[in-house]
Design brief:
With about 90 residues, the protein is of the alpha+beta class. Helix content is about 40%, strand content about 30%.
Length: about 90
């Protein structure tokens, strides 16, 4: 399978990178960005790695990576749609 990022997920990834540069430096931010990309590739290869969370509408899957959560779902076109990438301590349901 392939993966695709929603516009919001793209914005999340950019924000995470820029915040990382500011707080931890370019090298560390780049390394974390690479880990995020590796996670997206992993989810594309293993789309059922996370349990489907049916309490959300539409149902989503949530996979942890570092201090973040990748929120995604499987699309009917055989793609993994990365909906958001949120900090695990953030109240992202609000």
């Amino acid at each position: 399978m392939e993966y695709v990022l929603s516009r919001k997920a793209e914005e999340d990834v950019i924000r995470i990178f820029l915040d990382g540069v500011e707080k931890f430096g370019l090298a560390q931010a780049g390394e974390y960005h690479s880990k995020l990309e590796e996670c997206f590739e992993f989810l594309a290869a293993n789309p059922y790695a996370a349990v489907e969370r049916k309490e959300f509408r539409p149902a989503v899957r949530i996979h942890p990576i570092g201090v973040h959560l990748v929120i995604y779902r499987l699309e009917t076109n055989q793609k993994v749609l990365i909906i958001r990438v949120r900090h695990s301590r953030e109240d992202w349901l609000a």
